[in-house]
Design a protein that fits this description.
There is one protein chain. Helix content is about 30%, strand content about 20%. The protein is built from two helices and three strands, in the order βαβαβ. The protein has a three-stranded parallel sheet, with helices on both faces. Helix 1 links the parallel strand 1 and strand 2. The longest helix is centred in the middle third of the chain and has 11 residues.
Length: about 70
């Protein structure tokens, strides 16, 4: 089978895409951040919804993506 690849291009005037990562499992945040950096993204990790909303609204420049768990 063909191997799947993720590709994230540069956005907004050549800036590295920024990703807000939200997860209530603190042990997962460094792992997710490392993986996203390996894909060429700039992650910012937060441990909860309230902090995520505040971070999202205050972000300059804005985030390109948001990654969140569902539980």
């Amino acid at each position: 089978p063909a191997r799947s690849r993720c590709h994230f291009g540069k956005v907004r005037f050549g800036m590295t895409p920024r990703v807000l990562v939200v997860d209530d499992e603190p042990a997962l945040l460094p792992l997710l951040a490392r993986y996203l950096r390996s894909l060429g993204l700039e992650p910012q990790c937060v441990p909860g919804a309230e902090e995520a909303l505040a971070t999202f609204h205050a972000a300059q420049p804005a985030f390109s993506y948001v990654v969140s768990d569902l539980t």
